[in-house]
Amino acid sequence: MPGLVRIETHPGQPVMTGGVRLLPFAQCLTLRLPAVNFGLVWNRPVSVLVTGADGQEQVLLVPDPARQIVWSLYAAAGKLAVFTVLSNLMRKANNERQ
Fold it and tell me: pTM for the whole thing?
């Protein structure tokens, strides 16, 4: 039985340009909920392996600003949720004291 959450890194199709070989890599996050027949797949670029004409290899990391924005929004939503819960609890405690 496959896992509910799976993270894998896959190579893409190599590209030759100007005597340089470029091999992209992507990370795939798969979420499967078999009980409700639901799944979610999120692919994101990770890096590019550059192989020069002399055979020298270099790994270039790919910045993913969308991912940084999404995680920032998650953090802001979490802080807002904690603030809301604490505000409601304090208001309830003040009302009970009166």
Answer: 0.63
